[in-house]
Amino acid sequence: MPTTHQPDVRPGRLAAAEYAKAFADASPRLTRAQALLEAERCLYCFDAPCATACPTSIDVPSFIKRIADDNLRGAAHAILESNPLGGMCARVCPTENLCEAVCVRNTQTGNPVAIGRLQRHAVDALMESAKPQIFTRAPATGKTVAVVGAGPAGLACAHTLARLGHDVAIFDARPKAGGLNEYGLASYKTPNHFAQAEVQWLLAIGGISVRSSWKLESAAQLETLRKDFDAVFLGMGLSATPALGVPGEALNGVRDAVDFIAELRQCADLSTLPVGRRVVVIGGGMTAVDAAVQSRLLGAESVHMVYRRGPEGLSASQVEQEWAQTHGVTIAHWLAPVEMVGMTEHVSAVRFARQKLIDGKLTATGEVEVIPADMVLKAIGQQLGNPLLTDAGLALQGGRIATDAQGQTNVPGVWAGGDCRAGGLDLTVEAVEHGKQSALSIHTHLTRA
Fold first, then answer.
1. pTM
2. The domain that contains 206 carries what CATH number?
3. How many domains does the chain have?
4. 104 and 189 in contact (C-beta within 8 Å)?
């Protein structure tokens, strides 16, 4: 059934002074006193489950003990030795599902040590110190490596290789390095341009150059990289959002959530960024939460985050879901979009079919629900969407690049990691580990006698 309201998408829904407050740091830094008290709660477990749960294997008890000893530089060294993007991961890693979930304090009392906030406390202190560089390069090897993609996987790979004495050239399609850390995360998670500060810290190791606005678009380009460099690492992430495949998807006001978030992240004045009065976000992951909450922060009056399965199917963590609800987002379940309803070539509502599980399959019940919308944001996941990879002879698995445990592909001299690699969790911290392990594998390959 069509709706009758006129589309309402415009900037400046808040008073100018309210934007800075709305997008302030979602998790303020610990003070020195707070950090010392929190660190004292750690039991410094032998065979610590928190360290095992960390994809980058940070020695959590070790760095927390150093914080308790007021040795922040030593704590940061312990973190960054395992995870060179430890500052960003401290901000965006779902610690509630990883290290903090298995913290003994959590299993005993339901109140884990705030590992993520302690990690941020130590790394931020180092990066703001007079001498933030704690690593030095090994003697030059004369070997060169091309890294495609300046996201977490590519940056971690490049930094690890540079420390080992190799020269690295990073190629990235965006104007700025950082990947999703720069373009794909909610602003309130990474305020004050932290993503770029971390990039500059990583590059300061030396031996790394960045070529921006360079996109891998042909098998010939990849072949040239293989000829010009001693090894190639592919960490380009996922660039394509699949279509919903419903009528009206091309209407004005329907867009990808990742593009909306990227535009917001690069906007110098948020009061100029248009947002709908009624926003519908389709999807159930962290991107959906980021898009929904930021729509509310921009002044949207109603925001619905709609998912086709039940609450247990949401990939967004419970903490993320509660964060969305705290900010006035309505989360609806068991609704699958079947049509974008339009008025004057602009979306005005989304028609959903109610679903239920029958013999394990999602099945429409016959009930229909219509939610008014001036803006619809699709957050239904991304895919590689790059046919050149098959043309280049790379084996794919589930639409992503197949590799061994160290990230090596079936094409000699080519490694891959991050979201473009098959079998991953699509987490920043896992992408970092992919880049690090691939770099160690590349180093072994390049220095083999």
1. 0.94
2. 3.50.50.60
3. 3
4. no
